[in-house]
Amino acid sequence: MTQITKVLVSKDQLQQRVRELGAEISRDYAGKELVLICILKGGAVFMSDLMREITFPVGIDYMSVSSYGASSTSSGVITIKKDIDMDIRGKHVLLVEDLIDTGLTLQHLKELFALREAASVRICTILSKPSRRLVDVPIDYSGIDIPDEFVVGYGLDYAEQFRNLPEVWIVETRD
Ligand SMILES: O=P(O)(O)OC[C@H]1O[C@H](OP(=O)(O)OP(=O)(O)O)[C@H](O)[C@@H]1O
Ligand code: HPA
Ligand SMILES: [Mg+2]
């Protein structure tokens, strides 16, 4: 049985942290050409909130990758299901994620955008599970550290459900 029983991060906590990250990014990239690249699908909710907290015009684009293939554990190999439309050469890229778990997806994407000759590539995530990390990928803008629990809401899914919950909830699975 699967139950969504406990709120781990409230709507207010999320909103507060998104505001702080938006302010920090606005200060750091002032006067630069910035493109926010959302990693679908989970990143979509955070992306929509974050872009409205940035105080100058930014470019936006969307990318969809699959990191786990057919197995449930990470293979470390990612497949691009939908690429960005923009030419990002010479532009500052900020990758926008809902959650960094092992870090493998973002490590791979950082390398990819460096190869595409972006002026810089940084990472922004609203949630991070530091205890699950397999690779040491630096997170430039990290929202909220969470424990090793399976969570849903604010973009995150369980079997494609619950992405639309405004809070982050813990999923409990019992027999
Ligand atoms: O740090 P990692 O171990 O690489 O895992 C993190 C990735 O896994 C989740 O995406 P998922 O593959 O579930 O796709 P979704 O966003 O479409 O649900 C999450 O949104 C990150 O993109
Ligand atoms: O806790 C999680 N929730 C949803 N998707 C995920 N992908 C890795 N960890 C998680
Ligand atoms: Mg998912």
From TrEMBL:
It comes from the Bacteria. SUPFAM superfamilies: PRTase-like. Residues 12-158 form the Phosphoribosyltransferase domain. Its cofactor is Mg(2+). It is found in: Cytoplasm. Pathway: Purine metabolism; IMP biosynthesis via salvage pathway; IMP from hypoxanthine: step 1/1; Purine metabolism; GMP biosynthesis via salvage pathway; GMP from guanine: step 1/1. It catalyses: GMP + diphosphate = guanine + 5-phospho-alpha-D-ribose 1-diphosphate; IMP + diphosphate = hypoxanthine + 5-phospho-alpha-D-ribose 1-diphosphate. Its EC number is 2.4.2.8. Purine salvage pathway enzyme that catalyzes the transfer of the ribosyl-5-phosphate group from 5-phospho-alpha-D-ribose 1-diphosphate (PRPP) to the N9 position of the 6-oxopurines hypoxanthine and guanine to form the corresponding ribonucleotides IMP (inosine 5'-monophosphate) and GMP (guanosine 5'-monophosphate), with the release of PPi. This is Hypoxanthine phosphoribosyltransferase. The lineage of its organism: Bacteria, Bacillati, Bacillota, Bacilli, Bacillales.
